[in-house]
Write a structure and sequence with these properties.
Helix content: 25-40%
CATH topology: Beta-lactamase Inhibitory Protein, Chain:B, domain 1
CATH class: Alpha Beta
Low-confidence stretches: none
Order of helices and strands: HEHHEEEEEHH
Shape: elongated
Structural class: alpha+beta
Largest sheet: 4 strands, antiparallel
């Protein structure tokens, strides 16, 4: 019984398309810690921070009337494998891929209050920096109703 299962698995893999690849990915430069330590919470504002650091990669709503900006960089390489197969003859194939690399990218986040003054900054991995920011912004119509 086990021999047949192994034989079937080997036939299935042999009939599929196996592709090995090696990739290198490099995007942007990291925000230097010297650039961040030069920023002064309560003194620097959104405009001065953008002038020093450039455009962020992501923008998040922070405490309803503030904003959080995120910069990240990538410098990685590695091997990958893809296996694909048509399950039904003459039917279009399907492919599935999942990428968790973005969660492992190092980055820097800056937080600003409603007056767009810098509240603080932090360096770390994207999964940690964005942990509390995975929600949709407030609906404008709901905001208008709650203010009246």
């Amino acid at each position: 019984m086990i021999g047949r299962a192994i034989g079937f698995a080997l036939c299935w893999v042999a009939a599929s398309c196996v592709q090995l690849s090696y990739g290198v990915r490099y995007e942007d430069n990291p925000v230097a810690e010297e650039q961040l330590t030069a920023l002064q919470p309560g003194v620097d504002d959104l405009a001065s921070c953008l002038a020093r650091l450039g455009a962020p990669h992501h923008v998040f709503e922070y405490q309803y009337d503030g904003v959080a900006l995120l910069w990240h960089h990538v410098d990685s390489s590695g091997w990958g494998a893809t296996v694909s197969m048509n399950v039904v003859r003459n039917a279009p194939g399907a492919r599935f891929s999942m990428d968790s690399d973005s969660a492992n990218m190092p980055g820097a986040m800056l937080w600003f209050g409603p007056d767009y003054k810098l509240l603080g900054w932090r360096q770390g991995m994207m999964r940690d920096l964005t942990a509390g920011f995975r929600r949709r912004p407030a609906d404008l119509e709901q905001q208008d109703r709650s203010e009246n």
